[in-house]
Design goal:
By secondary structure, this protein is an alpha/beta fold. The chain has helices spanning about 15-25, 45-55, 85-90, 110, 125-135, 155-160, 200-210, 250-260, 290-305, 325-335, and strands spanning about 5-10, 30, 40, 65, 95-100, 115-120, 140, 170, 180-185, 190-195, 210-215, 240-245, 265-270, 280-285, 310-315, 340. The strands form two sheets. Strands 1-8-2-3-7-4-6-5-9-10-11 form an eleven-stranded mixed β-sheet, sandwiched between helices. It binds adenosine monophosphate and magnesium ion.
Length: about 350
């Protein structure tokens, strides 16, 4: 792959139009959303969608989220748009929530990765909405990272991973939420959370009543078990270094890290722990400030890759409640489920 990737700015109307034209012509475009940057293409063209998998190196069995710019745009993509889904859309769209429903025939099997369902989302980012409206197409867009890498939360991250592999990156500034959308399926008997994100479990329950939490959200799936959300089964979001999550008080954490200080050892810590640590550290927010932690997590994980000397990262991780559940879900995968309780 050696495409000449264009750098476009969401602040320029002609660049929004350029992104839309590329998409109409079967191109791949990096798009800003409020969650992370997405790698967008025409969701209705299976041949074009195949190029997304190639550009990312994404496993073929991992389905894509289809992005729309209005609630009305969903109806032709699904077999049914049940009351629960409509209530969620009313409460949280546009926003960081993806809803899975039985798919209509117009969704190619490449987009749904062979599943009979489709994931749909109406993003809040004005540039994403403007591009979808300008091209008039629903856009399949997984996160714009190379498969397995931390998701991009700036246009520069996306450029780093995808330059030469796609037609353009549209710069719309840093992403507000910083982790990918919440994924909930309404295609089964009961609503089930498949991936936590910017809309919390508590917010889903407020609209739907009881919501099951898929086993894979907080745990490593047993070998051989089929994931309800195929994206949850891979080691994911990981920097090159080995990551170990450390549980305990700040004092215990600092004592442990300092006693294991060595070349190549670094820390992903809370802001207030920085002065206590004697190894290179990156803080990603204050303890308990889940909004900041979500916003900064992927930037911090990528920053460890900028220093090739870093081999081992001792990381702090919030409890899996509220928005902390989304941070926990990503970080535990970045760590390959390695946790040390002090
Ligand atoms: P990404 O867009 O890269 O953040 O990944 C999309 C996520 O949504 C992955 O975890 C997918 O497995 C999940 N997903 C997309 N479509 C479906 C679907 N039809 N059923 C279950 N999970 C889905
Ligand atoms: Mg992804």
């Amino acid at each position: 792959m050696n495409l000449k990737t264009e750098w476009l700015s969401a602040a320029r109307t002609e660049d929004i139009q350029r992104a839309a034209d590329l998409l109409k012509n079967g191109g791949l475009v990096g798009l800003p959303t409020e969650t992370v940057y997405g790698l967008a293409a025409n969701a209705l063209d299976g041949g074009v969608v195949k190029k997304i998998f190639l550009a990312k190196g994404r496993p073929q069995d991992n389905p894509l989220i289809v992005h729309v710019a209005s609630v009305e745009q969903v109806a032709p993509l699904v077999q049914v748009f049940p009351a629960g889904a409509q209530a969620l859309a009313k409460a949280y769209w546009p926003g960081p929530l993806t809803i899975i429903l039985p798919k209509a025939d117009c969704i190619p099997l490449e987009t749904s990765a062979g599943l009979p369902t489709v994931a749909v989302r109406f993003p809040a980012h004005p540039a994403a909405q403007a591009v979808i409206r300008a091209c008039g197409l629903p856009l399949a867009a997984p996160s714009g990272n190379l498969s397995g890498r931390p998701s991009p939360t700036t246009a520069q991250h996306m450029w780093h991973d995808m330059q030469g592999r796609i037609d353009a990156v549209l710069d719309g500034g840093p992403c507000e939420v910083g982790v990918e959308s919440t994924v909930v399926t309404l295609a089964g008997e009961r609503p089930r959370l498949l991936r936590p994100g910017g809309i919390t479990l508590e917010q889903l329950q407020a609209v739907l009543g009881p919501v099951d939490v898929d086993e894979a959200v907080l745990n490593r799936l047993p070998e051989g078990e089929t994931a309800a959300s195929p994206g949850m089964k891979y080691k994911h979001y990981a920097p090159n270094a080995r990551v170990i999550i450390i549980k305990g008080t700040s004092g215990q954490y600092a004592a442990y890290v300092n006693s294991h200080a060595a070349p190549g050892v670094a820390a992903l810590c809370y802001k207030e722990e920085e002065p206590m640590l004697q190894v290179p550290c990156i803080s990603y927010g204050g303890q308990g400030d889940d909004r900041a932690l979500a916003h900064e997590l992927f930037r911090a994980l990528r920053a460890f890759d900028d220093d090739t000397g870093v081999k081992l990262v001792y990381a702090r991780c919030p409890e899996p409640t509220g928005l902390g559940m989304a941070v926990y879900n990503r970080l535990i995968r970045a760590a390959g489920f390695e946790v040390l309780q002090l």
